[in-house]
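@channel sequence for tomorrow's demo:
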Amino acid sequence: MDRAKEHHRSQREQWEIRQLDNDLLQQRQSERDRERELKELAEQRLLLADEHDVSDLQFMCRAPIASLDCMEEFSAGSGLSGLADRAADGGGLTKEQLLLAGLTHSAPTAPLQLNRTANVTPGLRYRNLGKSGLRVSNIGLGTWPTFSPNVTEEQAEQIIVLAVESGINAFDLSEAHSGTRAEVELGRILTRRGWKRTTFIVTTKIYWSTRSEERGLSRKHIIESVKASLSRLQLSYIDVVIVHKADPMCPMEEVVRAMNYVINQGWVMYWGTARWSPVEIMEAYTNCRQFNCVTPIVEQAEYHLFCREKTELHMPELYNKIGVGLMAWSPISMGLSQSKDDSTIQLFSRASFRNKYSSFSWTEDETAAANKEGYGWMKERSQPAEESRKYSERIRELNSLAERLGCSLAQLTIAWTLKNESVQCLLLGASNVDQLYESIQALQLIPKLNVSMVQDIEKILENKPTRPPMVSTLALR
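structure tokens (generated this afternoon):
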């Protein structure tokens, strides 16, 4: 009997000990959970505090660092209006901080209106041209209309000054469309203004035609063209020399060796192409690799709402494979349309849009057409009436869409073009200051082109390019 009581007592003691151990373990576990929760809460508070500080810093410095790729695209006036609201609420912002952000005490009264006293253009960004280290603004100034016969030297200088003050650092010249006057006048303006050579980028073209003294892209013609351009521009070097159209009558080896020579001499920093087909660009790249020459970094191509195939299907592939970037231009962004329905319809419905890949033939003569007064060389060629009617309807629908967005058709076209990440620089043109200023405002329209808006534009155009289906050679047997 005593032995049974002793055994029962020992079992009870063991059960009590296990119960105490379990209680102690649960208490320790709860303490660890509590410590972990407190630690996570402290980390979250610290992270929120850091994000708040960083967001305030980015909020304050958003406009002055527009050149950084990490900067988010400007929503239309969002950053500036936020600072203005904080100032109105007594957020402690000083006048100097407002001026740093590009604000004045007068708020904008209309959408898509830039403050002319601002030093930084909202939405302006700088990107590497191709896979080179040369950084250009996402919009450049194409000087074809700027140095046209109907624009005086004073007006041209005002346009150049506005471009520089807006942050544009790329200036494109074309002997084919404005003759040698563009290089001479731009050289005079750059010399008179005394801007540092490191602050601007000049691109000019090597052009040849059937009526020139030297036909084709021979080594002689390339070297003489570069020397003549340097003399007219009064510069020690040219940033990028563009070879306008490939020459089927000249060996590609001679072309790439000549371009490599002018670069080695220090006359040119980079070279590129204009209106070359993807096959011709690949041939030039292959020759450059074979003969250890400098490869091209950019292709200038026509790109707009009605000319999309080359840019959207082939240029991204060329960039990813061989590092050739894209500097785009379009008739409307070059300032050849004043947003009139009739002229815009004629401009977009040119039959030459279908000849994107045509190479130069000995029967062409663009120089003679370019020397005509105005832009007669851009006139519409004959095409079926049904096709012209379709273009007219699409232009009217795009005009209606632009009105809903509170912008012009030209601004909508510029913003739509820059929405494509493949476009590293879009060349704008203007024959007066107001026209260039209006075009620059299109940068603020880019954030408004969201997915649904782009889909609406695609429904109007109905011309999104697609690759043809792959054809297997085995299936043909």
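heads up for whoever presents: The longest strand covers residues 238-244.
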